[in-house]
Design goal:
The complex is a heterodimer of chains A (239) and B (179).
Chain A: E1 3-8, E2 11-16, H1 21-27, E3 51-54, E4 61-62, E5 73-75, H2 79-95, H3 110-117, E6 134-135, E7 141-144, H4 153-162, E8 167-170, E9 177-180, H5 197-201, E10 207-209, H6 213-238
Parallel strand pairs in A: 1-5
Antiparallel strand pairs in A: 1-2, 3-4, 3-5, 6-7, 7-10, 8-9
Chain B: E1 8-14, H1 20-26, H2 31-35, E2 39-43, E3 56-62, E4 65-67, H3 68-80, E5 81-87, H4 89-93, H5 105-115, E6 129-134, E7 144-146, H6 153-164
Classes of the chains: A alpha+beta (239), B alpha/beta (179).
Chain lengths: 239, 179
């Protein structure tokens, strides 16, 4: 294993040859935001939040896909990058229906937290208001395309870890949509093992566990019945 | 003898929202006593004034802009207010109020009211619905944003504290989440 030396935010840091700028940064306590990357999944460069400036490159590069090499001069936190990241999050929020107050992931959402972290307290772009379908055909899980940011964590974990490769992305750009089994309803998928890895890694409310309504209702009724029982007793005493 | 410093003139307004942000404002509880020791509330659902006065220092505006009346009041407020604050998610993002933007307004009106035992209300006394529900900053300039559905009292307090002392509102990371 050879070690390279590079400059990040004016600091000389060492990194293993071939590791990504994102890993190298983290090892030296420099946090670069990302919504699609997870250690252990193949890097994708999908969300573009980890863009950094590398001297000599005409455009910013995703830190998760750029290898550390000898003598690189990298900036991770310039005013331009901070502004790009804010714009990216604002565009994500404007693109689909990320209405946090009525989302299953409200309070536990990585997109919501990222917006707050980057100081996005309003969206400067017009919201698109285009309603996308919701796939509730799976008996345990729900896919809401309106909450999806196309980070492809689900695609990658299903392929690389579960080995099922149920998920893919069809269509391009703003029309991109995750699909199961060449675009069949999730509940009819023959490759899905129902393991839930995709749900666990989803950063937003796009993939969620379907609430077991029947079970919940039974529990609620049981406690209500106890209340009614006591109430009946009190009414009888009063009569 | 020195004159006492002029008291800050605060207004609140309730556009297309559920009034939850105002409820959260009331949840400031005892802090309201401290607030009103140096601030006058000059307009809003919590006071008995019909007309929006001139020379307001700070306005907390709850709700999105869904009707012509909302839009007129917002522009009226903007013209008479030094610092206009988008108060809560409906004002900041459109939030639940803007969920109707996914459907044509006429279709909604035709579907919602006849679904119950009624007919679609109409008449010149009703303010016209805008084609799209909009957040405040898409209509007027906004000076500060307090996200949240509703914003917790601590957020409101942090924002008001900054505004009272003439400082820019800078909510911390935990205090500026949507939802």
């Amino acid at each position: 294993m050879s070690v390279v030396t590079l400059t990040m935010n004016g600091r000389l840091i060492s990194a293993r040859q071939g590791e990504s700028l994102l890993q190298a940064a983290r090892e030296h306590g420099i946090e670069i935001p990302t919504l699609c990357h997870l250690d252990g999944l193949e890097p994708l460069g999908g969300c573009r939040l980890c863009l950094v400036e590398v001297r000599g490159s005409p455009r910013p590069l995703p830190a998760c896909l750029t290898q550390a090499s000898e003598g690189l001069v990298v900036e991770t936190d310039t005013a331009a990058l901070v502004e790009y990241r804010r714009m990216i999050v604002e565009l994500l929020l404007a693109e689909r229906a990320h209405t946090c107050s009525v989302c299953v992931r409200n309070g536990r959402c990585e997109l919501q937290a990222m917006a707050a972290r980057l100081g996005v307290d309003h969206v400067r772009f017009e919201y698109r208001y285009r309603l996308l379908p919701l796939d509730a055909s799976h008996e345990r899980f729900t896919l809401d395309h309106n909450r999806c940011i196309l980070c492809r964590r689900c695609v990658r974990v299903c392929d690389a870890v579960e080995g099922a490769h149920t998920w893919d992305v069809c269509f391009r750009g703003i029309n991109g949509r995750v699909v199961s089994d060449l675009d069949r309803p999730w509940g009819e998928s023959t490759s899905c093992t129902g393991c839930g890895k995709c749900v666990h890694l989803c950063p937003t409310g796009a993939l969620s566990r379907t609430v077991d309504v029947g079970d919940e209702a039974a529990r609620e009724r049981a406690s209500l019945l106890r209340i009614l029982e006591r109430r009946a007793g009190i009414r009888e005493e009063g009569a | 003898m020195n004159d006492p410093p002029p008291r800050l003139r605060l207004a609140t307004a309730w556009l297309a929202g559920c009034s939850g942000c105002h409820m959260s404002f009331l949840d400031l509880g005892e802090r309201l006593v401290e607030l009103f020791s140096e601030v006058d509330l000059v307009y809003g659902p919590l006071v008995d004034g019909k007309a929006y006065p001139e020379g307001v220092d700070v306005a907390l505006v709850e709700g999105a802009v869904a009707t012509e009346e909302n839009r007129m009041l917002l522009e009226h407020i903007r013209a008479r207010t030094r610092l206009l604050v988008s108060f809560g998610d409906c004002a900041v993002t459109g939030n639940v109020t803007a969920l109707r933007n996914y459907y044509p307004t006429e279709e909604l009106l035709a579907a919602v009211y006849p679904a119950a035992a009624g007919c679609t209300p109409a008449g010149p006394e009703l303010p016209a619905l805008l084609t799209r529900v909009l957040p405040l900053h898409q209509i007027v300039a906004v000076d500060a944003f307090i996200p949240g559905c509703p914003p917790e009292p601590d957020r409101i307090w942090a924002a008001l504290s900054a505004l009272r002392h003439g400082e820019t509102v800078r909510l911390g990371e935990e205090q500026r989440t949507f939802g």
